[in-house]
Amino acid sequence: MYEKIDVAKLHLEHYPAPILRKVAEPVVEIDDTIAALVDLMWDVMFEADGVGLAAPQVGVSLRIFIVSVTGRREDGQVFINPELSNLQGVSETEEGCLSVPGVRSKVRRAGACTVKALDLDGNTFVLEAADLSATAVQHENDHLDGKLFIDRLTTVGRIACRRGLKQLEREYSG
Ligand code: NI
Questions:
Q1: CA 29–ligand 1 middle distance (angstroms)
Q2: N or C, fewer C-beta in 10 Å, the chain?
């Protein structure tokens, strides 16, 4: 199904790459290519000391993300075709993004949420996420809708991040 994706050629995409702004497609079959893609995503995420990564960040517009809030593989979870619900409370956490290097800012999100998704075996699971886990899930899920944390900054945060974003625009455009 997805054999056209050349996993060996994938690499981390940086803002302002257009792929980061696309709404990703649902996964229709979890085949060997999807498994290889997820393996590559873990490698990319751990190499960059991240706690989450979404498939569009390696140039694949599919609804998949991975999260490990401890930064350890054994604590990691794969979310395929995730659906968020029961967004509750408010939490303001400093966020960054592997695709937006050098830029960090506080972002206001729900403090807890429920996420329903498929794992790599195609089994549905439901996770009640809170605190750091809820922040990570919402941040990664945003990637699947073409949204970045820099879209959710306060006015003060936007001013603070402006220089860093301009620099990335110069470095990674075209
Ligand atoms: Ni991100």
A1: 25
A2: C
